[in-house]
Amino acid sequence: MLGPVILAASRSDRMRRLISAAPGTKQVVDRFIPGETVGDIVPIIEDLTGRGLELTMDVVGEDITTPEQAGAARDAYLELIDRIKDLELGPKVEMSVKLSMFGQALEHGHELALKNVRPVVEAAAAIGTTVTLDAEDHTTLDSMFAIHEELRKDFPQTGCVIQAYLFRTGADARRLAANGSRVRLVKGAYKEPAEVAYQNKHEIDKAYVRILRVLMQGDGYPMIGSHDPRLISIGQELARTAGRKLDEYEFQMLYGIRGDEHLRLAAEGHRMRVYTAFGTDWYGYFMRRLAEKPANLRFFLRSMVSKG
Fold it and tell me: Which residues are tagged catalytic?
């Protein structure tokens, strides 16, 4: 029951100030967000790709209030892509973007977000990689899917994310699977009302399996976003049943969570992509990581006590 409380706190400026100032916060933040600048993150990219892993990179930051901030977010991704080009790692490192960071919630936000994300998608394609549009709360999804569809006209490899806990996602999955999209399936990490989303973990897990079956049987490229050992095993079985080869789907997990499992899956020949975030505006991302798993919260609280 702590998850909804933590997600509510992720929207609180007062909680942001308290947690940012708390002893031990940096130790836990570093576990999930291993750097603030492109320079910080380059050694992480080199290390993980050297171990046979692939990456998807997220420049954290969602509280955009001006078009200028949205433009700065775009430029941060362009800087990252330039460094990946220098490293000659384009095919192994894609981008994940939240359209809120590109101005989606501002006036004329749909058009602004599309304008800002397009050069990032173009630059990624130029170095042999792509972009996945992250899903945010349910009110943003129609805009996200419309931008995804528009980008795929010129860059069909552009991916998107769907969330198993939303009632609408079964229909979204069938549409995306039919048109051959790259789709990352996650459980969902935003506080959503009972009118639009399952609230019970068991129901969410059942929905995840139903939707993953649709993706595996479709014409697209499924990306299994989960740390749950049971769902990972089910994903492997669904892939075998659908006749998919190991390079026709992939697993994705967060940096800082189950690192040994990342390496195990890669050693077995699976495509294993690590979602790796960096930047200074870490609060919203960090709070969702705490909400997802009680062990993360316990680790945080222990750190606060030990540093207090």
Answer: 134, 184
